[in-house]
């Protein structure tokens, strides 16, 4: 599902950076997180030699998974690992955060295989409908790859099917990694330390702009069917389709009356996407983000109050920011909260 988003270009002292061009983003994403579990991940961390890369990678990956679903509640994510020259899907594409986090186990060894990773990703993602954004993010810990064939033919397959591949190399820049990212219009990064690695990985939580090639090939459907299920009372017990157990409460599919414990989920009986209105709202803010607040200079003798927290904002002590739409005044802390977490202006609503 794609929409056009026009962002404000007003200058401001707000600490929240925003894009200033008209962009197009996919709010329904299908992403595979690939972790290189070869011998390279067992080397000491760049920041602390007492800990291994594995600890840093696993802990940061868990944070990324939670942040990804917080920003993309309608999307799905899967995990692929590579070691001993093979690639394996650790967890298929799913929207269940708990299952994904629990699958991240420490089992390492051998050499990685980039081509096997890309082939596995392609086999799963090329069947995804065109309204979905297809992405692969690779955390690579080696300087070589044990591949069975010509990797550039695999890269062409990914490019032709609009599958974007981004890579993060923890060792050094690798030519083939750079070429994969360049040809699939992904990004390639070589972090300098653990903090930089976390920053680079977390940048993939927000949906990227669609590529020029995918924009011309993807024809978005006029509508996508979604169901808003009714929540059943906790006193009523019935079989859920997600755990195959008798559980209390749950959400009832409006089409086939199947029950599920959590949302969002795709109904396994009728295929209807089951969501709640907050899920749509949290996805929507990527398309039409809150405008940047502008610097506000109080008039002589005026002592403004923050509309959010009701704190007094004396001119000599505080920076005052104003919403260009509703003209309400906010402090810096509320400005950050509105743009980073709330994603809508309380004054405008």
Count of beta strands: 19
Poorly predicted parts: 1-22, 215-219
Largest sheet: 6 strands, mixed
Name of the CATH homologous superfamily of the largest domain = von Willebrand factor, type A domain
Can you list the strand order of the major beta sheet? 5-4-3-6-7-8
Structural category: alpha/beta
Mean pLDDT across every amino acid position: 83
Percentage of residues in helical conformation? 25-40%
Radius of gyration: 23 Å
* CATH class division of the largest domain: Alpha Beta
The 3D shape can be described as: globular
- In CATH, the topology of the largest domain is named Rossmann fold
CATH architecture term of the largest domain = 3-Layer(aba) Sandwich
Could you tell me how far the N terminus lies from the C terminus, measured between alpha carbons in angstroms? 25 Å
Instruction: Provide the number of structural domains.
Output: 3
Q: What's the total helix number?
A: 9
Pfam family, one: C1_4
Organism: Naegleria gruberi (Amoeba)
Protein name: RNA polymerase II transcription factor TFIIH subunit
Zinc finger (C4-type): 253-270
Account of the 3D structure:
- 26% of the residues lie in helices and 21% in strands.
- The protein is an alpha/beta fold.
- It has three domains: 19-217, Rossmann fold; 229-274, no CATH class; 290-349, 2-Layer Sandwich (Herpes Virus-1), CATH 3.30.40.
- The longest helix is centred in the first third of the chain and has 19 residues, at 53-71.
- It starts with a strand and ends in a 7-residue tail after the last helix.
């Amino acid at each position: 599902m794609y929409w056009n988003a026009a962002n404000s270009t007003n200058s401001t002292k707000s600490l929240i950076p925003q894009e200033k061009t008209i962009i197009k983003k996919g709010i329904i994403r299908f992403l595979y997180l690939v972790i290189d579990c070869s011998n390279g991940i067992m080397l000491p961390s760049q920041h602390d030699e007492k800990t291994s890369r594995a600890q840093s990678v696993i802990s940061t990956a868990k944070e990324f998974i939670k942040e990804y679903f917080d920003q993309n509640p309608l999307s799905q994510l899967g995990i692929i690992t590579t070691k001993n020259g093979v690639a394996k899907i650790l967890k298929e594409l799913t929207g269940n955060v708990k299952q994904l986090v629990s699958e991240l186990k420490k089992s390492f060894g051998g050499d990685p295989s980039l081509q096997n990773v890309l082939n596995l990703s392609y086999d799963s993602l090329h069947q995804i409908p065109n309204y979905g954004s297809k992405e692969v993010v690779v955390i690579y810990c080696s300087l070589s790859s044990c591949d069975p064939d010509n990797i550039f033919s695999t890269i062409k397959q990914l490019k032709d099917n609009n599958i974007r591949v981004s890579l993060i190399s923890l060792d050094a820049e690798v030519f083939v990694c750079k070429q994969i990212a360049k040809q699939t219009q992904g990004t390639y990064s070589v972090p300098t330390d653990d903090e930089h690695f976390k920053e680079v990985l977390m940048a993939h939580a927000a949906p990227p702009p669609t590529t020029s090639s995918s924009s011309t090939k993807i024809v978005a459907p006029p509508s996508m069917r979604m169901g808003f299920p009714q929540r059943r009372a906790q006193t009523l017990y019935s079989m859920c389709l997600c755990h195959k157990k008798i559980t209390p409460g749950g959400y009832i599919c409006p089409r086939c009356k199947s029950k599920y414990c959590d949302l969002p989920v795709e109904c396994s009986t009728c295929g209807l996407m089951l969501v709640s209105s907050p899920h749509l709202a949290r996805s929507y803010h990527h398309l039409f983000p809150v405008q940047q607040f502008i610097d506000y200079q109080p008039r002589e003798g005026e002592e403004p109050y923050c509309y959010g927290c009701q704190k007094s904002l004396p001119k000599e002590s505080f920076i005052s920011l104003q919403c260009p739409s509703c003209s309400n005044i906010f402090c810096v802390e509320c400005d950050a909260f509105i743009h980073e977490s709330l994603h809508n202006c309380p004054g405008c609503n």
